[in-house]
Amino acid sequence: MKKINNKGITLIELLVTISLIGILVGVSGDLLFTIFRAFNKSSTIVNIQEEGNAILNKIKTDAINASNITLVGDQEILLTLEGKTIKYVISGESLTRITTISGSPPVITTENLFETSSGVKKYKLVSSEGSEKYSAFILKNSQSTPKLLVIYLTVIPFTQDANTPNDLKVVGANARLRTSIVLRGSYDRIN
User: Fold this and answer.
1) What is the pLDDT of residues 32-59, one digit of tens each?
2) d(Cα 90, Cα 68) in Å, to the nearest integer?
């Protein structure tokens, strides 16, 4: 009697193999999608923090060089420097730097921070989280410590379609930026 050679695979084995491959592809595809989404979110946060820190450094340089600092509410600060005044204003969802250079006539320049060079908004600022509202600029002044300017900003990234500029789509997570600046001349009061 002759033996039958069973070196092939059955239909059930083939279906089980195809099913397992399908499950592995589905799981690995979902895993890759999650990894790419997490990478995009973290790179967005890093970009916000880099741009935000550059803006905070600009404010910090102006504040350190200022001879006088005046808070106007909790969303506006006026810095007096030699021959000019600089005002940082948070209005709505944007931060604006207004520079007035003394002279006749005075020269006034306005710069909208957190916007691209073409004027398209990339970020919006918020001064509250949930029901908690906070001040963007705080001036801490006591007799035993140096005078401090504390700045709190929460920045939310979004995309803006050129055809529908009012339709904003939030991308990524928001970033909280905070800095404290010791003001010039405030060490003189410390014993």
Assistant:
1) 999 988 888 888 788 888 888 888 888 8
2) 20
Digit-coded pLDDT (tens) for 115-135: 655 555 567 676 655 555 667
- pTM of the complete model: 0.69
Helix, strand, coil tally for the chain in percent (to 5): 30, 35, 30
SS3 of residue 7 by DSSP: coil
Q: Which residue has the higher pLDDT, 168 or 73?
A: 73
Q: What are phi and psi of 103, to 5 degrees?
A: 160, -175
Residue type, 11: L
- The confidence score (pLDDT) of residue 1 equals 61
Pairing of strands 94-101, 123-126: unpaired
Q: Is the pLDDT of residue 8 over 70?
A: yes
Where does residue 75 fall: left (phi above 0), alpha (psi -120 to 50 degrees), or beta otherwise? alpha
Host H or E run for residue 55: helix 11-65
* Cα–Cα distance for residue pair 42/23, rounded to 1 Å: 29
177, burial (CB in 10 Å: exposed 0-12, middle 13-18, buried 19+):
middle
The radius of gyration computed from the CA coordinates of the chain, to the nearest angstrom, equals 28
Work out the pLDDT band at 110, boundaries 50, 70, 90: confident
Spatial separation of the C-alpha atoms in residues 54 and 97, rounded to whole Å: 14
